[in-house]
Design goal:
This protein has 246 residues and is an alpha+beta fold. The protein has two domains: 116 residues, 2-Layer Sandwich (Heat Shock Protein 90); 73 residues, Ribosomal Protein S5, domain 2 (2-Layer Sandwich), CATH 3.30.230.10. The protein is 22% helix and 31% strand. It has six helices and 13 strands. A hairpin with a 2-residue loop joins strand 9 and strand 10. The longest helix is centred in the middle third of the chain and has 18 residues. The chain is globular and about 65 Å long. The two termini are 30 Å apart.
């Protein structure tokens, strides 16, 4: 993930996955287009990070968006340009397998919305939190976040959870982490909890995942904090990375 000017000038997301055929790439930019839900029953067993098909079309409607993609079949790739939700061009290009999405001039056609964007450090911080949650949810995939040519996150995708934590946070923090694991009926809990000496003044380093998907829960946070009981002083919160699988 590459950012310029906190994302206002440019947001680029590149992957080396399976890519898309041209027909699917064009469809991906339409509202409510998704490959993740095929039947009503799929709603009950969705393990993906989204399924409504709104994000890409929404951002393409308020920016100049370029989508380049190619499959690993050896066939030529496609390049699609959308400006303010209007398809401008589609052409055949030679690109590596995977998908490259470039979003430029965010809100160029709705300048009034720019005033609702926060400062550059705040916007970068929000993106960093998203990439962090992705990397923690999928330690077997390598993630990299760069802003203004400065690397902020880089995980190697080895599948080693502790190594991923070290690459996101620090080796010093990882020395004070304890693994947790347990089965409770249909639930399986895994993750790491921090020793009291690395407690924070807020809950910013508490991450809860359900089937690898980040969620927030004051109830689970309170239960975990209660387990520390008198080990933590008032207004100090433990470091937690917990994944619940159903």
């Amino acid at each position: 993930v590459y950012l310029l000017n906190g994302g206002r000038q440019k947001i680029q997301v590149v992957d080396d996955g399976s890519g898309m055929e041209r027909e699917d790439a064009l469809l991906a930019l339409e509202r409510h287009a998704t490959s993740k839900i095929r039947t009503f029953a799929d709603l009950k067993r969705s393990y993906t990070l989204g399924f409504r098909g709104e994000a890409l079309s929404s951002i393409a409607s308020v920016s100049r968006t370029t989508l380049q993609t190619a499959t690993n079949s050896g066939s030529p790739g496609s390049k699609i340009l959308v400006e303010g939700g209007i398809f401008r061009s589609t052409e055949t290009v030679g690109v590596p397998s995977g998908t490259n999405i470039i979003v430029e001039d965010l809100f160029f056609n709705t300048p009034a919305r720019l005033k609702f964007m926060r400062s550059i450090p705040s916007e970068v911080g929000s993106v960093k939190e998203v990439v962090t949650s992705m990397a923690l949810g999928y330690p077997e995939i390598s993630f990299r976040l760069v802003h203004q040519n400065m690397e902020l996150i880089h995980t190697l995708g080895t599948g080693d959870y502790l190594q991923t934590l070290e690459q996101i946070f620090s080796a010093a923090i990882c020395k004070d982490l304890c693994p947790v694991e347990g089965d409770y009926g249909p639930l399986r809990l895994t993750g790491f909890i921090g020793r009291p000496n690395i407690a924070r003044g807020n809950r910013g380093q508490q991450y809860f995942f359900l089937n690898r998907r980040l969620f927030r829960s004051r109830l689970i946070a309170a239960a975990a904090e209660k387990a520390y009981d008198t080990l933590l002083p008032v207004a100090r919160f433990p470091f937690l990375v917990l994944n619940i699988e159903i």
